[in-house]
Amino acid sequence: MRRHRTLWFVAATLLLLMFGVAACVPAGAEPAADVEEEAMMSMEPAEEQVLRFAPCCSFRWDPATGTGADYYYGAGLLSALTEVVVNPDTGVEEVTCWLCDSFEVSDDGLTYTYNLRQDLKFGKTGNPVTAHDIKYTWERSLRVGKWPLRLFMFIEGAMDLYNETADAMSGLTVVDDFTLQVQMIQPAPMWNRWSTGTPMAVCEQEQLEAGTAEKHWLEDGGGCAGPFQAESFDPDENLLVLERNPHWPGEPTKLDKLILQGRLPAETMLIGYENNEFDVVWVAGPILSEILEPDNPLHDELRFWPTQNYLAQVLFTDKPPFDDPKMREAFIKSIDMDEIIEKVMRGRFFKLKTLTGGPYGPYCAHHNCDDRPGLTQDVEGALQAFAESRYQGDPSLVEPIRVYAPPGTTLGDRSLLWQAIAQQVYQVLGVQIELLIKQRTTPEERELANVGSWAHGIQALDPQEAIWPLWHSDGPFNDGYLKHQDPQLDALIEKAQAIQNVEERMEAWKEVEDYMYSLYIMIPTYLDSRYFLVKPWVRNFELGFNSRLLHPDEVWIAEH
């Protein structure tokens, strides 16, 4: 296991250097000077090797059931403390086994056979990690969660299980205790890269079955395959204590324990951090705004990582005025996202330059997403398109443009985003946007909107996951929301899906993206990031995409 983690760490480090992430660090989050770093590296390990971490206010403890923010604030960390069958995709290395000794893919690309390692054991029971556990875990993920559908969708029988017309995935076959066969309904060249997502963490069937509606499966200890196991879990206090897995092969982890505290108010987390009750805490909103100021005492302890969680605005092409392509073009060309990111978001988020997310993964490794223009304001082009639309450049003829956004005052609130967009569109086109700020909207109200927000988090680092679910006519998130139908776009997506070679596949996805830009159906807005306060004595704490702890077995606590 150590050699796989080392490869992953080296590859991830190279990837970050390729993308120049360090150059993107906001003024309030620069790393410490080299001299200080060398001094920190010389510190001796503390006697108590315990990491106390408050990841976020919203943190579900089951990788299968988290949705939305749960994945990207917390479950990414939890999944990093477990193991999946093959290693996470970095975009710069071949897929290798973690829980398996080897795997084979049939010539037609429909059958994957995994030969599991036989020296891996679950921490709670000491039982071996078997193909039965993998099958049960994956099927349970699809039964109890919505998001895993994007990862399992090409396995034979996955949709039947998801729609509750079957109680198992027919495409998962346990050949023997240590051999699992996966049958696809169509070739899925990126399956091995998709199969590293949070819901794919392998947990022990015996432990999962112990969970009920009244009692969480972690309460008496347990967990998934990995270097750590659950010592205890208190669902009322949202407190999970992990300890070293005594049965895990290879060198033991440097940490004895990880204490994860969820669902605390941001102010409480900050007070706990200042009182040394926590070693690492997640920060956002007004607190983050304060710490970003250079004269804040905590400024030098603030660190950040970009994620694959992005926000985009979508224009409903089945409703006026955006059923007119020229009106869509005029609307989108009116927006200056650079100004919004700088002045409204104050650098809290990164401008989204592609429709595929970023900056991790093979797409940006191949195309260098930093050089992509993203959404660029074009006032002359906007006015020309408006004049060529059926509205002939007359704002009084434009049907009402209604946008619903939740209230708030923190950086990144959609209400602030849309206030800025509305001002820009009015300045360029003279068209007004009716911004309706509500915490919750009814189905009737949503039906009146002709613009919507789409938050999407990528689990598998492939453009397929960002584009297919929402923009293909048969995509699971298209029906009933966008109602967007375009046979040419469908054909381009299907072409890209079928390509095995990674470089050729990324070129095909660029063709998809360029065509989508020409349709003016989506406003890429911003890419999220995660900010954490990290104590100086926490060593080797490095997060990857979606808050994944890159090398948990290397984290340690220095004397302090």
Explain the overall architecture.
It is a single chain. With 560 residues, the protein is an alpha+beta fold. The protein is 32% helix and 18% strand. The chain is built from 19 helices and 17 strands. The protein has helices at residues 2-19, 34-41, 69-80, 131-144, 149-152, 158-162, 191-194, 205-209, 266-274, 285-291, 325-333, 337-344, 362-367, 379-388, 414-429, 443-448, 463-471, 487-497, 502-519; strands at residues 50-54, 100-105, 111-116, 172-176, 179-183, 228-234, 239-244, 257-261, 280-283, 302-315, 350-351, 401-405, 433-437, 451-457, 522-534, 538-539, 556-557. The strands form four sheets. Strands 1, 6, 7, 8, 9, 10, 11, 14 and 15 form a nine-stranded mixed sheet that branches. A hairpin with a 4-residue loop joins strand 6 and strand 7. It starts with a helix and ends with a strand. The relative contact order is 0.16.
Characteristics of this structure?
alpha+beta; 19 helices; 560 residues; globular; 17 strands; four-stranded antiparallel sheet; disordered N terminus
| Number of E strands | 17
The percent of residues in helical segments reads 25-40%
Radius of gyration: 24 Å
Termini distance?
Answer: 30 Å
Shape: globular
Instruction: Give the low-confidence spans.
Output: 1-35, 67-75
Helix-strand category: alpha+beta
Mean pLDDT: 82
Percent strand equals: 15-25%
Biggest sheet architecture: 9 strands, mixed
Please count the helical segments.
19
Give the SSE map.
Blueprint (H helix, E strand, L loop, with lengths): L1 H18 L14 H8 L8 E5 L14 H12 L19 E6 L5 E6 L14 H14 L4 H4 L5 H5 L9 E5 L2 E5 L7 H4 L10 H5 L18 E7 L4 E6 L12 E5 L4 H9 L5 E4 L1 H7 L10 E14 L9 H9 L3 H8 L5 E2 L10 H6 L11 H10 L12 E5 L8 H16 L3 E5 L5 H6 L2 E7 L5 H9 L15 H11 L4 H18 L2 E13 L3 E2 L16 E2 L3
Parallel strand pairs: 1-8, 1-9, 12-13
Antiparallel strand pairs: 2-3, 3-5, 4-5, 6-7, 7-8, 9-15, 10-14, 10-15, 11-15, 16-17
Helix pairs in contact: 11-14, 17-18, 18-19
